Amino acid sequence: MYEHHFGLSEAPFALLPDPSFLYMSKDHSMALTFLRYSILNKQGFTVISGEVGSGKTTLINRTLDELESDITVGLINFTHNAFGELSEWVLMAFGLEYREKSKVEIYDDFVKFLIEEYRKGQRVVLIIDEAQNMDAHTLEELRMLSNVNAQKDYLLHLIIVGQPELRITLQKPELRQLAQRVSVFYHLGELSLIETQGYIAHRLEVSGGNPELFSSEAIRHIWTAAKGVPRIINTLCDLSLVYGFSASQDNIDAAIVTEVLNDRQKMGLQLVPEINHVESGLGVVK
Q: What is the pTM of this model?
């Protein structure tokens, strides 16, 4: 709609987790580094957490793009309260038949699959996104699935990604064995004002546009309203471009952003839910 007006080749602030738009903030850079590290060094469990819209799925997609041919990957990209049998979802993620099989048969087939992949020199990685919806019983079942190893190597590497609630679940006493197996943990925090400036400029550049399309004051208003959450930043930037196009303006200034924010407030739309703040950071267990 507004792309031609602003000299853009595509919409720069779409909400889809496109890895080509990944901006390497300090947290995102560290998280990607530890994802790479955990896969290359055949760690057992890796946990990445972050608030809704913090860019977790985009990180996963970038990781998938970078995987070498000697890595066999399975992806479960959603979970919910009626998730059902985890083992069936795991087999489906790797393209294995799971219908009309008992849990014992499913487990046996999966172990055989892991052993065969190891024999062929393949590393097997299972990635579970939106894992905050998994209860303690399901997470413990996941640990049991990962118990197969050969000499000094894990046959299955697990990457578990979810909202901060996942971290709370992992702290339950009944999951202490799983928690002890987590070799890498990283939490994605919110973007700083300086990172938000870089984030917006980066997405505009990827879309072939002017990285200075948004004024500094406009970006400050967006950052304050979005509390540094990338998905909300995208929403506000996209709306600001629509409003700017409608007003035939060549740049996005603070007045346009203020109009966007006021209109959303009039509609009763909450921008950011209350965030239970968790400091960004990492844990690496040798």
A: 0.86
pLDDT in tens, the chain (286 residues): 899 999 999 999 999 999 999 999 999 999 999 999 988 887 778 999 999 999 999 999 999 999 999 999 999 987 765 556 788 899 999 999 989 888 889 989 999 999 999 999 999 999 999 999 888 888 888 888 877 776 677 889 999 999 999 998 999 999 988 888 898 899 999 999 999 999 999 999 999 999 999 999 999 999 999 999 999 999 999 999 999 999 999 999 999 999 999 998 887 665 655 544 445 554 443 2
**Torsion 25-26-29-31 (CA) sign:** negative
Q: Distance between CA 33 and CA 55 in Å, rounded?
A: 15
Instruction: Tokens 């950011």: give the residue.
Output: 272
Measured at the CA of 30, the angle between CA 29 and CA 31, to 5 degrees, comes to: 95
108 contacts: CB under 8 Å, gap ≥ 6: none
